Amino acid sequence: MQVYKSHTTIEALGAGLTMNKPYSEVLIVKARKEELPEILTLLDECGLPGEGLADHLATTLIAREGMDIVGCSALELYEEYALLRSVAVKETHRRRGLASRLTKAALDLARDHQVTTVYLLTETASAFFPKLGFKLIPRSEVPQKVQNSIEFTKLCPQTATVMTITLT
To answer: Is the pLDDT of residue 64 over 50?
Structure first.
């Protein structure tokens, strides 16, 4: 089992986030096919779309505490670009820096795939992602191959905030 660690795993603690349990109890690992139903349930509980995620399971990460999936993040790969999606954390595990860890792990995974730029759409977390280096951009600046994704074409409204980060 490969455990994903972000480059700055503890950084979220410096941002004033609090933790209720020790940081090391939750591992971030690649999702397995048999975990998809539990991931989809988590996304539904968090009000996020699960449609199309099965097509990107190879680039989906989960946060596991014991046998429980307590968070997830995923990438849709489009050559040198990626779309970050499905960043979700169970209500009981929020305010511990887990969403930051999941996002950073997904960015590490993007680097592993030689992705240079990551995009995302959000309706609810436009204040969160800039803390991790994402910048607001107009929808028109997103490459067409990413705009053709199900997230852009069907799942997220035109009013969703679009952000990007360039990976180094």
So the answer is: yes
One-letter identity of residue 40: L
3-state SS class at 50: coil
Cα separation of 104 and 15, whole Å? 15
Q: Give percent helix, percent strand, percent coil of the chain, each to the nearest 5.
A: 35, 25, 35
User: So where are the chain's domains?
Assistant: 11-166
- The pLDDT value given to residue 48: 93
Average pLDDT, the chain: 88
Sign of the C-alpha dihedral, residues 95, 157, 106, 57?
Answer: positive
Q: Say which amino acid occupies 45.
A: E
Contact yes or no for 103/140 (Cβ under 8 A): no
Please give the model's pTM, rounded to 2 decimal places: 0.85
| Domain 11-166 belongs in CATH node 2.60.40.10 | no
β-bridge partners, 27:
64
Helix (H, G, I), strand (E, B) or coil at 10: coil
Strands in 45-116 per DSSP E: 60-65, 68-78, 81-89
- Beta-bridged to residue 85, according to DSSP, are 74
Other residues' Cβ atoms within 10 Å of the Cβ of residue 116 = 13
